[in-house]
Amino acid sequence: MTISGTTSGPELLVELDRSGPEPLHRQLTNGLRDAIRTGRLTPHSRLPSTRVLAEDLGVSRRLVVDAYSQLVAEGFLLSRHGSGTRVATVDAASAPARGPGDASARYDIDFLPGSPDLSSFPRHAWLRALRQGLSEIESDAFGYVAPQGLLAARVAIAEYLRRTRGVIADPHHIVLCSGATQAIALLSQTLRKTSVAMENPGFWLHRMILRHNGIEPVAIAVDDDGLDVAVLSTTDAKAVLTTPAHQSPTGVVLSAARRTALMEWARDGRLVIEDDYDAEYRYDRAPVGALQGIAPDRVVYIGSTSKTLAPGLRIGWMVLPAHLSNSIAMSKGLADTGSSVMDQVAFAEFLTSGGYDRHLRQMRRRYQIRRSALMQALARYLPEATVLGAAAGVHLTVRFPDGFPIEKLVRRAARMRVRVEPLAPCYAEPATAPPGLMLGYANLTETQIMTGVRALARAME
Ligand SMILES: Cc1ncc(COP(=O)(O)O)c(C=O)c1O
């Protein structure tokens, strides 16, 4: 089915298979997303109106509205009243698929990097925490409360971060938010006129969020010691986004010398945005405290429950320098008037009752076993791959020799219903990326890991 050029939108092929098992709405969403990713739909181009597209495709208008909304939510499309729906200007063409709403439904084995073991979400303990918290909370908390979150939740988070990460956390300077993603979005709005640097490679979504907010991040190289602070010092950046505990995606830890240099750089009003990514899972390396504990007035500390409990919870937090906390709280209020009180109540109780610590201990053991299974499988079936960043986190990175046809491997694996994510989208210039993959292991059983890596080896033949 072709969306015709007469329909005030671009000429575009979207195939809908009415005899296949896949629902039409998913086919349409996937088709449009693929068209954007592969560049067939270019940034800024206008899509047909939902009415016209529905007529062209012979489907209900609701189906098209839902597909557009889903892609707006994922950042692939922009919808503005009066100017219709357009392809987003962000580098969506290189964005990998995320989450079961899209691609993972098509895979049997999904090495998606950012996922914890979803089947181990502590349902009963969470329900108990919610029941307990709800029975104790004042009715006022069900109203419009402070956008930065319930004080009880902020106090519980501050205590946890002080104890486990050495964060100097004043509950009055904590803002709860919808994951690290919203933290980066709110900070981007506040820093809009500032030159912001970011690790290269770095998390593609964070780069997209910065760009979406009008910031083109200054790309700072990463080597075996983490972010290259000497290079950062030669730029005009006034803030830098970094993942010191487990660099995303390489997994290296910021060395002691670089930590000192970075905090030195941050003097004179500069800001370090510390995404304390994957810090909870550390297997065979010494613990490293958060940078924030060294200079709380120069660091924004970001954390979330996406790797520890579930990304679907959308619970995250920022610990802010005093001078930023009011403006970020106001941005949070303007964004959504605050995060769900129910989740805050449950999380606060889960933290103070010790449930969170117990869950983390249990998951750490499980992930360590899965990581070992992945390392063994790689050594056996893909000996040409060099493994990086395996000492912590819920994913590791593999690099292949230069010239290795990584895209071909990803495509062939996908045909075998195995999803692997290439490193390229993490690079500011994807074409310059070395051939490599990020392999998440936490949400796969040992058998799935073995089968998946064997399939990768077959795909390489
Ligand atoms: C580098 C990095 N930071 C943070 C997160 C967590 O994001 P969120 O809390 O919004 O789920 C992720 C998730 O994939 C990530 O890759």
Key words describing this protein structure:
single chain, 461 residues, alpha/beta, eight-stranded mixed sheet, four-stranded antiparallel sheet, 14 helices, 18 strands, 15% strand, binds pyridoxal-5'-phosphate
Produce the secondary structure layout.
Layout: E1 2-3, E2 12-13, H1 24-37, H2 50-57, H3 61-73, E3 77-80, E4 84-87, E5 109-110, H4 123-136, H5 151-165, E6 174-177, H6 179-190, E7 196-200, H7 204-212, E8 218-223, E9 226-227, H8 229-233, E10 239-242, H9 256-265, E11 271-275, E12 299-304, E13 316-319, H10 322-336, H11 341-352, H12 355-381, E14 386-388, E15 395-399, H13 406-415, E16 418-419, E17 421-422, E18 436-440, H14 446-460
Parallel strand pairs: 5-16, 7-8, 7-10, 10-11, 11-12
Antiparallel strand pairs: 1-2, 3-4, 6-13, 8-9, 12-13, 14-15, 15-18, 17-18
Helix pairs in contact: 1-3, 2-3, 4-11, 5-11, 6-7, 6-10, 12-14, 13-14
The protein binds pyridoxal-5'-phosphate (PLP).
Polypeptide structure, described:
This protein is an alpha/beta fold and 461 residues long. The protein is 39% helix and 15% strand. The protein has helices at residues 24-37, 50-57, 61-73, 123-136, 151-165, 179-190, 204-212, 229-233, 256-265, 322-336, 341-352, 355-381, 406-415, 446-460; strands at 2-3, 12-13, 77-80, 84-87, 109-110, 174-177, 196-200, 218-223, 226-227, 239-242, 271-275, 299-304, 316-319, 386-388, 395-399, 418-419, 421-422, 436-440. It has an 8-stranded mixed sheet, sandwiched between helices. The protein has a 4-stranded antiparallel sheet with strand order 14-15-18-17, with helices on one face. Strand 3 (77-80) and strand 4 form a beta hairpin. Helix 1 (24-37) packs across helix 3 (61-73). The protein is globular. The chain starts with a strand and ends with a helix. The model has no long low-confidence stretch (mean pLDDT 91). Bound molecules: pyridoxal-5'-phosphate (PLP). Pyridoxal-5'-phosphate binds at residues 114, 179-181, 203, 243, 248, 275, 277, 304, 306, 311, 316. Pyridoxal-5'-phosphate (PLP) binds next to helix 6.
